[in-house]
Amino acid sequence: MQTIKDTYQRITDAIIEQLEAGTKPWIRPWRGNSRGSLVPRRATGEAYRGINVLMLWLASELAGYEENTWMTYRQAQDLGGQVRKGEKGSLVVKYSTFNPKEPEDDDERAIPYLKGYTVFNIEQIENLPNRFYRPAADLPATPVLHLETVETFVRNTGAAITYGGTTACYRPAPDDILMPDRARFVDEVHLYSTLLHEMSHWSGAKHRLDRDLSGRFGSESYAIEELVAELSASFLCADLGVAHDPRDNTATYLESWLKALKNDKRAIITAAAKAQAAAEYLHGLQALKEDSRAA
């Protein structure tokens, strides 16, 4: 079993390496994936969550994989496949706990840890059943300027959103979101990446997920909340099948994120977990909206 330090540090070091190279590994440079969901999935079809999404996106970006299904060496063999000789696997983690209780110890505290294991993209595996390989569909001939799927998703949350001016922000006091005029955005990717980023901040209000939104610009708490919002936006964009490219002040944010990650090797794992919770909270509002309509 890998130690807590080894697993946390390996993940953090991988993210830091990309940030120092000027790359944000959660940016997905495409509108949709005709081969399936943008979210990485296990051989069973179950979606990965949290930090594993970022790690597998990063692995795909570096290796150029188009497929989003991953499995262990043993799973590939059980399906009749074989990992090609020389292929290098990618790290994913599983949260677990162990009980260090001694026979004479009455304390039954369960201690959490991360267990790392290796998976392979199906593009690294031969002879899998045909259902794992799907032909790519043609890309749309013209860009989509209005994505009703995203518009409906945002509308169902009930968030108060006003378009106008030049600023994009969530305002805690009036509990609303300000967005620039639509015409100011470069394209729909920039618009929806920005909107879902602000929606993620909105989810952190005290009467919702109660995250710390009080940090001032330049503080570590501010940097972490911005990281949570950006990761959540990337998860939401993937879920909704659109590209994620916020075009923010990259140099400033990269510097603040690097500082936070270097100060705390758990920061990226914690941020990814909070981002996943934000995305799931916003998805949960969709079900509430549907229930109210049915009633």
From TrEMBL:
<dbReference type="Pfam" id="PF08401">
    <property type="entry name" value="ArdcN"/>
</dbReference>
<dbReference type="InterPro" id="IPR017113">
    <property type="entry name" value="Antirestriction_ArdC"/>
</dbReference>
<protein>
    <recommendedName>
        <fullName>Antirestriction protein ArdC</fullName>
    </recommendedName>
</protein>
<dbReference type="Pfam" id="PF18818">
    <property type="entry name" value="MPTase-PolyVal"/>
</dbReference>
<feature type="domain" description="N-terminal">
    <location>
        <begin position="5"/>
        <end position="120"/>
    </location>
</feature>
<dbReference type="InterPro" id="IPR013610">
    <property type="entry name" value="ArdC_N"/>
</dbReference>
<dbReference type="InterPro" id="IPR041459">
    <property type="entry name" value="MPTase-PolyVal"/>
</dbReference>
<feature type="domain" description="Polyvalent protein metallopeptidase">
    <location>
        <begin position="149"/>
        <end position="274"/>
    </location>
</feature>
